[in-house]
Amino acid sequence: MSKVVILSGSPNPGSRLSGITQYVESHLSEQGISFEHVVVASLPAEDLIHAKFDSKPIIEAAAKVEAAEAVIIASPVYKASFTGVLKTFLDLLPQKGLSGKFVTPLFLGGTIAHLLSIDYALKPVLSSLNAKHFGSGVYAIDSQIARLDSGVGESQFQLNDELKERLDATITELVEELKRRA
């Protein structure tokens, strides 16, 4: 049907942000929405830091963004903003790299204090990439996500009901937008 790319800006693969992205991936799959997940921290650090536009992994990741109809940008909040890891990748996208994309932010902070970081830190950067169509997005806090580590394999998480409701509404909004564009 439609294509979504999830950009995960967490430098820690086992962070609670993974609980959010796993939940979203599961629900996109249930809706029959094809998606790809770009974990920015898994891209070569030297290529990101030195802005190697010609790096094969960077070109491949940027191509996923270009091919997508919608982009979900997931990041923990560090120092009242999204991560530097994510910023290094966004800097490597073409100047109009988000033109025509439906962009949905998913942020995770330690407290509600940085709720407006989506509007005041992320959206200006996305606007510089020509993003004009934004979903409502979700700002979650750490206490809404419990880690259920079994000690083996990938971390498992339990999201509280209020966070699930907000994510469900955001996913529904995204799916409806993709249907509208079809």
TrEMBL record:
MF GO annotations: FMN reductase [NAD(P)H] activity
Secretion signal span: none
Entry keyword annotation includes Cell wall biogenesis/degradation: no
Keyword Nucleotidyltransferase in record: no
Domain NADPH-dependent FMN reductase-like residue range list: 3-143
Keywords: Flavoprotein, FMN, Oxidoreductase
One GO process term, biological-process aspect: alkanesulfonate catabolic process
Gene3D superfamilies assigned to the protein according to its UniProt record, in alphabetical order: 3.40.50.360
Protein name, as recorded: NAD(P)H-dependent FMN reductase
Record lineage: Bacteria, Bacillati, Bacillota, Bacilli, Bacillales
Underlying gene: ssuE
